[in-house]
């Protein structure tokens, strides 16, 4: 058995263990979890869903800005069509399918696949880094599960390293090195400092909004006398940390399981494990709902402009794209 096969098997085993662990934790506490789910009012869930729609909008703005900075400015409408439809690929194990889909659709607007792929990778990587920045204050809470006294030290020790990663010159050097290793031509344009600043601000705001959505759900189930500051830290900062960590688990579609497990570890000591499980179940549902909603809007635009139609459909409408012309 070769090495790649062994790695593939280990990835599958890891994915199964993580998802099984979270499922078992919810199943064994289902009586309490279901009771907590019923305590969430429709208004609370609707408000959390509304706040949860802000991050996808900020993310597509970042993706569009990065793509423009690398040499392909496009209108927000096609950007949304390409980005949101392609984003559904993150639910397929492997983590690259979203980028592949986006590159394929963008090529029909004469945008080089290489440029779209680099944009997609930057989008994911910078989102993860910003997630760690927003999530750092909750790291001591995850480790100790009780004290937040070390929050300042965590920021002091790790934040400079994350800022270094966001240095435009270093980012451009990393892109050039990656393309060289892959034996691809270098990009015609480099990232500007303004684009990086825009990206960091939008992503940090995006993670904060996601955390606020979780906080809206969690505060409904919080017992009387709960430490509100600790709850806010565990949700608004903890969600970003949990999600950023789960983004590196390429075997888990969209980080399913790991993100929820980490959130339960953060919230369990504050609002109880069953209540935390109820929060992560509803939170994951709202995330998927937002992804599907925006993908449906993007799909309608992309299909009407023949970014995802078949060659036969395009021929019937007398529409030609580069691949049809080449064929």
From TrEMBL:
Q: Which UniProt keywords apply?
A: Cell membrane, Membrane, Transmembrane, Transmembrane helix
Query: Key word DNA-binding present in the record?
Result: no
Keyword Transmembrane helix found: yes
What is the scientific name of the source organism? Knoellia koreensis
Q: Please state what the protein is called.
A: UPF0104 family protein
Say which domain of life the source belongs to. Bacteria
What topology in the membrane does the UniProt record assign? Multi-pass membrane protein
Q: Where are the transmembrane segments?
A: 43-63, 117-143, 155-179, 191-218, 230-254, 261-279, 285-302
Q: Where in the cell is it found?
A: Cell membrane
- GO cellular component labels: plasma membrane
Q: What is its main location?
A: membrane
